[in-house]
Design a protein that fits this description.
Layout (H helix, E strand, L loop, with lengths): L12 H24 L5 H8 L3 H7 L3 H25 L3 H15 L15 H23 L9 H12 L11 H18 L15 H6 L6
Helix pairs in contact: 1-2, 1-4, 4-5, 4-6, 5-6, 5-7, 6-7
Amino acid sequence: MTFRSLRPQSGHGRQAEARRNDLVVLEAARDVFAAQGADAPISAVAERAGVGMGTLYRRYGSKTELLQRLCVLAMDQALAAAGDALAASDPWDALCGYIRACVDQRSGALAALAGQIETTAEMRGTARRSMARLAEIVVRAQASGRLRTDVTALDVSWLIEQFSRRPPDRAEPLDPDEEGNVRSRLLAIALDGLRAHPGQVLPGRPPSRSRYVNRWSPRS
């Protein structure tokens, strides 16, 4: 998937072209780093984007700057999906639509970078806004009686992250339609598991917010 909600809808000239080229590089970087981790070479990003190294470094001063920008754009897209969900009239459909949109966009794919890059104030602020909106979506769905009460916003975030992961490249990759079909079926099963089931309690403790946040602290 591409950053559809962030892609310029119109515009001409060098500025619009620069934005389009920027998103091409960012989409390529997301695929590369989600699959190979933060140690992936910048040359792999340039090759996947179909640009030269000089072009890439004119857009970003360093590999770290590229990764930081990519994380912000991924969170911006999740924020846009949350806005659509909060505007929807049916809280349960809104929650399911939000999760499907985030999985479709693979907004959680960059969790592989956690602890490997320095977080900026922009990253932290965007993350807080994104989590606050997700919490609103969860509260609305629980108030409707259709989302189980022992599910937390962090549970939903982890779920999106699991479905956002890109499988390692294979010698014989799966057909895209087949892979998409499998993902859709498993996601439907997971969403059904979020429904309220009287008398049933989830095992274990809810995810720890401190662990979720602290994993982005640079590792020594």
